[in-house]
Amino acid sequence: MNTKRLRWIFIALILLSFLLASLATGGGDAKGDKTVIYVLKVEGTITEGTSLDIVEGLMEAEEMGAEAVLIELDTPGGLVDSTLDITEAILNSELPVITYVMPKGAIAASAGSFILISGNIAAMAPATTVGAAMPVEIGMEGRKVADEKTIKFLAGHIESIAEERGRNATQAKRFVTENDAFNENIALERGIIDLIAEDEQELLSKVDGMTVEIGAENRTLATKNASLHTKGKTIRSSLLSMLSNPQIAVILLMVGIYGLIFGFMSPGTYVPEMIGAICLILSLYGLGLFEVNMFGVLLIFIAVILFIAEALTPTFGILTTGGAVCLIIGALILPKEPFLINPQSDWFEGFLLTIIGIAVASAVFFFFAMGAVLKARKRRVKVGGEELIGKVTRAETGINEDSGTIKIRGEIWNARTLEGETIKEREKVEIVDREGLTLIVKRKEID
């Protein structure tokens, strides 16, 4: 009887646990009785990792049944291809997308302008800025405005996005062609955004009841008092953000090349080769995430060859200087893809300083470190019997071309002479060579 009761109690506890779990998760509905707004944050430079975050976030928001997606912007811009991927994902989203420049003092510059305009509803917080979307390129003379073909394409693209969302297409186009930049009040007046909100709660209160078009369907938003679900960065997106940054890609490329070279010059440890191979693979993957100028890659390899030549045949810095110049030029022109980054951003200065730092470090590395390794390889081995060559001692026994012994450093060694020479016991001898465990000696002439 007791066993039967325990069995029923056990079954009841299992059923109760399932019931509590179902209630805790809202019975499989992520929203339950509470409206959920899925929040995505775009901060810093826009890269392939940012694009992955947005695309995955939109899909996850649809799966969990969110009311809308809120994309919070504070960015100076970034890569063109990543930006186009983001705007495409937003425009094709099955959920309403609210784009919002926040907090106070934030910017949606360059690429950020494209993302802001792509939203079904666009908003800005006070003291924020949007615009300055003219594409730029990096060259030997520094940053410059992209070619006319690129400007026309991006101007037409942002114009079509604005028209799709019912915004001022002419003004949106001027962000690219004229580099216009506005605060939130002018952006609202010019028809770039739909409203101004102090914070997230005021934004959700203001958009509550608004109707947006999703495909062929009109959808009314119910966002007042909604709860916010913020998406965290995944390891994959964080890694892509790092690798698709041209600065990081160039650093990894150089570390990879140097690791392999250093490993080949001093084999046996395997650590430099392993680190070099890993960094080289990561850099090549990162370089594949944005358009690369192959002439820049060629100049970087020429720089490395010049550095190695300096270590092999010292020219008192001539080849090192040439290598440093090739490295700086090659790295500067490496990113061929135009950037949608605010011209006032310190990203370009940071990139230039990174390249100069790599060039200086490379020159020092090859001038001193690699030179030391090569000198060590050329130096005569000074371990075991080879270290004794040239030493002077006395014969322990008589020595002829067949046998004999000497004592040096407290050790007795077999010894013999060359060409029929005979050495008497206690005579001074000089070690001239070694054959296995036998030392070759000759009589030491008295000076």
**Mean pLDDT over all positions:** 81
Care to count the β-strands?
A: 20
Write the CATH architecture name of the largest domain.
Alpha-Beta Complex
Structural class category: alpha/beta
Number of domains: 3
* Shape by Cα distribution: elongated
- How many helices in DSSP terms? 14
Task: Work out the strand percent.
Answer: 15-25%
CATH topology of the largest domain: 2-enoyl-CoA Hydratase, Chain A, domain 1
Share in helix: 40-55%
| CATH secondary-structure class of the largest domain | Alpha Beta
Poorly predicted residue ranges: 19-32
Radius of gyration using CA atoms only: 36 Å
Strand order of the largest sheet: 11-6-4-2-1-14
- For this structure, what is the CATH homologous superfamily of the largest domain? 2-enoyl-CoA Hydratase, Chain A, domain 1
CA-CA gap between termini: 114 Å
